[in-house]
Amino acid sequence: TSEAPRTPLPVVVKGACHHDCPDTCAWEVTVVDGVATRLRGSAEHPVTRGTLCPKVNRFLDRVHHPDRVLTPLRRTGPKGDAAFEPISWDDAIGEIADRIGSLREAGRAESILQFSFAGTQGLVQMGVAIDGLFDALGASDVHRELCGTTSWLGAAKVLGRPFGVDPESLRHSRTLVLWGTNTRITNRHFWPVVEEARAAGATIVVVDPVRTDTAREADVFVQPRPGTDVALVLGLVHVLDRDGLLDAQWLDEHTTGWPELRASATSWTPERTAQETGVDAAQITWLARRMAIETPTGVRMLIGPEHRENGTEIQRAVAMLPAVLGSWREVGGGLARSTQQWAFSALALPQRRPARRTVNMARLGQVLTDPRDGDPHVELLFVHNSNPASIVPDQNRVIAGLERDDLFTVVVEQFLTDTARYADIVLPATTQIEHLDLAHSWGHLYLALNQPAIAPRGEALPNSEIARRLATALGLDDPVLHRSDEQIVRDLLDSDHPFLEGITYEVLAERGWARLAVPEGLRPHVDEIHGVPTRPMRLGALDPARGPEAEGSDRFPLSLISRKQHPKFLNANYAAFPAHWPSSGRPSLQIHPADAEHRGLASGDF
Ligand SMILES: Nc1nc2c(c(=O)[nH]1)N[C@H]1C(S)=C(S)[C@@H](COP(=O)(O)OP(=O)(O)OC[C@H]3O[C@@H](n4cnc5c(=O)[nH]c(N)nc54)[C@H](O)[C@@H]3O)O[C@H]1N2
Ligand SMILES: Nc1nc2c(c(=O)[nH]1)N[C@H]1C(S)=C(S)[C@@H](COP(=O)(O)OP(=O)(O)OC[C@H]3O[C@@H](n4cnc5c(=O)[nH]c(N)nc54)[C@H](O)[C@@H]3O)O[C@H]1N2
Ligand code: SF4
Ligand SMILES: [Mo]
Q1: Which residues does ligand 3 sit against, CB inside 6 Å?
Q2: What is the pTM of this model?
């Protein structure tokens, strides 16, 4: 199963989308004579339901795009100019291994930094294989924390290990609040669940500072000022308490910190909350009552508000609402957030050897440009699965770092991205239909086996194979570093956790995907989850302060919302493909007419 088929008769190969997207669609690739002729969403998969999305419908064009990097490349011009010559794999691996080897010998292994994120979320190609190599080298490691960690921390402060409810269970909600998430664009395979709930009588509420595509389809749209969500939660708690809508016994048995939360909400009358948030006082009262009375009440949140200065506190506040209300008691109630905890608690993920130095990926620009930042200074940067010149904050500084003459940069990529243009060596990476992987999801409870449908194009190699070749060149012979991709997947599944009951490599290879064996109706943070303590939920005083970005601040009079708004982009992917561009053909900024007018800006200016 780990070889791509090559027969004249059409063969259907099962796989799954690699993108950092909560939907993790299961797909089927039709292959004729080694050529992929068709890609479609699995019709049987309960979340994919036979469709992919506008980003990935043309994925085969991406695989066969003339701009694919298909051989190793060595830089021949100034950094950033994308002037390269093709070289052989032996030369590329040899040169990188020499550089790594001499830094190791000089006792400067920590001046090697691997930088990667979630270009593919497949566990083998995202990290397991390459992490093993860099752990063995004792190199500096990257905290892959640009997405979801702020949100995780906020939720974890309340929930401990923040298992959310299965998003599919929200079809039973009667009140469904999509809080700071743009489902129609970012999590489109969850939308049918929303519609099922609505058809069964649910009211769909969207809480977002922007009237998004999702807000337009809601029954009720609540539009707070950016970052004022903590005040909004305080206002809701105030009404719930004032109107006697809370269950003292539930609070007593399942939570701690209610007295402190209650005290912090005392002054947040609907009127005061309205002043702070811009949401109508009557709507605040309505929402609180609705969430308490028309149950089950489900709250859906991904990561939108985590980009705010007070992002952790916002997530913490929103995570408190279902706890205060006791929504977790009912199937269809509770907080539905990233489901990653479910899969991660079950799979046999390898133990990471603690790296001696760990770099916060958001600080890459600082780390590369300031010799006093971290010791030793980074001399070798190995990028895979990421495009830091585009996705890391403080872009000018990141680029200044990538321009450093004394930095040796390797980029493993499918395309000459903004980052790859600065590389000393570019290594050609396979795409998802050219390699094997195990896909878990942060938006549902299914695992999928992605089997290679076609042979690698040109000389492209999977990240895992690159790690094995480097290990060989560096004389690292620990068998763990030389496991095949299939063996890595088998090892990941080799766990006696009950959620993996009945899920074997063979079952996945045959069916393509399987639902984690999580019992139907299991209520996280109410029921026991295999010995993981998830109770009591921790309430406490909430802090509505918004930090320096608060409105009216002299330093930051405006609040930037950098949301995901293009139906055909996925983070930095596809920006080089005109067929994926917005109709205007260039990036745009939406600004409130009042803010625009007083700066002399009008629609269409650029
Ligand atoms: N088409 C498309 N889909 C994607 C992606 C993509 O790039 N394009 N990226 C994928 C990835 S990596 C991720 S992490 C997910 C993210 O999925 P989401 O979290 O759903 O997406 P975002 O657009 O980051 O944020 C959602 C909403 O949060 C709102 N928001 C911002 N600040 C605040 C605030 O202070 N309070 C409240 N209540 N709302 C606020 C924004 O206006 C936005 O509408 O999407 C995934 N799906
Ligand atoms: N300005 C801005 N910055 C952002 C965000 C934003 O919305 N706006 N969103 C933030 C969020 S939520 C996230 S998740 C991050 C995303 O940050 P990243 O994970 O870095 O972004 P992606 O664009 O998803 O993927 C990066 C690269 O991975 C490559 N890739 C895909 N598959 C493979 C593979 O198998 N092997 C190798 N070697 N490479 C592969 C793709 O070609 C792509 O260029 O960005 C964050 N930063
Ligand atoms: S990007 Fe998301 S919605 Fe599109 S095919 Fe991949 S997993 Fe599905
Ligand atoms: Mo993300």
Answers
A1: 17, 19, 21, 23-25, 52-53, 55-56, 188-189, 570
A2: 0.97
